[in-house]
Amino acid sequence: MNELNEKKQLALEQYKEIKASRRHYSNLRFALFPVYFVVQFGLVQAAFKGSEGKELLFSNFIMPVCGILVTYVFWTIEARIGMYYKELETIGEKLESYLEFDHKMMEKFSKRSFLSDTKRSIRTVYGVFCIYWFIVLVYEIINIVR
User: Fold this and answer.
1) How far apart are CA 9 and CA 61, in angstroms?
2) In the predicted model, is pLDDT for residue 47 greater than 80?
3) DSSP 3-state assignment of 56?
């Protein structure tokens, strides 16, 4: 009987760590988002200054490439955070069952609507910026060809 209590105590400690890690990755996801916006809007502002004829540190052709690459990097980070988060939920669900919790915190909530699906919402923003930079890149290529 004592061995079972020790196993459950270890499982409870692991469960606490999983909840803390899950909170960490959730906070990290939302801490990165403002950084992404700052970088993107900095690039957009530099693009508009460049269109007014002011001197840029790099060409208008490289700017959209940088925007696409920055979007790719942040999108990759977001995908990785999502993978970690999902794995933590899976392990947490198993521990909740093992520990026989009445109220389960790791239960997967419905993500049927756009407003309740954080991953889809964030990826939509990244997708919009990626499309924007792709259009700017095509526009710059067309201007170079002319």
Assistant:
1) 59
2) no
3) coil
* CB-CB contact of 134 with 43 (8 Å): no
Look at residue 117 and tell me whether its pLDDT is greater than 90: no
Angle in degrees, CA 48, 137, 39, rounded to 5: 55
Mean pLDDT of 65-70: 92
Of 98, 119, 97, 122, nearest to 107 by C-alpha is 97
Among 30, 24, 116, 113, smallest CA distance to 78 is for 30
- Furthest C-alpha separation in the chain: 82
Q: Is-contact 67 133, C-beta < 8 A?
A: yes
Tokens 């290529």: give the residue: 141
Residue carrying the six token digits 């009445």: 102
